[in-house]
Amino acid sequence: MRHLSFCTRSLPLLLTAGLTAATLAVSSQAFAYGAGDFFTRVGVAKIAPKSDNGSLANGALSVDVQDETNFAFTLGYRFHDKVGVELLAALPFEHDIHLNGDNIASTKHLPPTLTLQYYPLGGTQSRVQPYVGAGINYTHFSDEELAIGDLDLDDSWGAAAQLGIDLLIDDNWALNAAAWYIDIDTDASVNGASAGTVEIDPLVVMAGLSYRF
User: Fold this and answer.
1) pLDDT tens-digit readout, 172-210
2) Which has the closest alpha carbon to 144: 180, 95, 103?
3) Are strands 151-153 and 113-118 parallel, antiparallel or unpaired?
4) Residue 202: which CATH number?
5) Could you tell me which residue, 55 or 20, shows the higher pLDDT?
6) Which stretch of DSSP H or E encloses residue 52?
7) How many domains does the chain have?
8) Dihedral of the CA atoms 87, 44, 42, 124 (nearest 10)?
9) Residue 206 structural domain
10) Does some domain include residue 90?
């Protein structure tokens, strides 16, 4: 009888422990970051061009492209536990352009950037998921303005490199921080005549949230 009483009292505890273990196992499996995940990352991005952006008109005009901050987002897919692709997109960024220190020009641009990514901890249950990427950027310039004439900036193709990290909150949400270096060089024309090359080559830093489907 004592043995039966002990078993009767222990059974709920064993069931509870079993259910807890099963719940943790399911949660851990769902938490595994890897193949088949679609995801989006949403946040605020700052584009900071390098300090020396070249010169125009045979060196007569030094160019300084100013920083800009705006909303940005990405879309991505993991086709392997450790490998995926991601496309960076954004609302148009508008940059003031200083020529010889004077703010007399501006432009808007869209910088879609596609990267192939490597996740060293992909497929594991780690809540910290760093990644690196490399790929290609296409930058489209529009609405160029120049106080002393007509400015035109050619669209640009260039390489891109990326570093990022996800800090997982639950099965779907994560905090995200990422940075891209993008090679953006554009040929400039003033009043229809070739004026030189503007080397923007920005560092793009983004912070926000990640959501995986």
Assistant:
1) 999 999 999 999 999 999 888 999 999 999 999 999 999
2) 95
3) unpaired
4) 2.40.160.20
5) 55
6) none
7) 1
8) 80
9) 32-212
10) yes
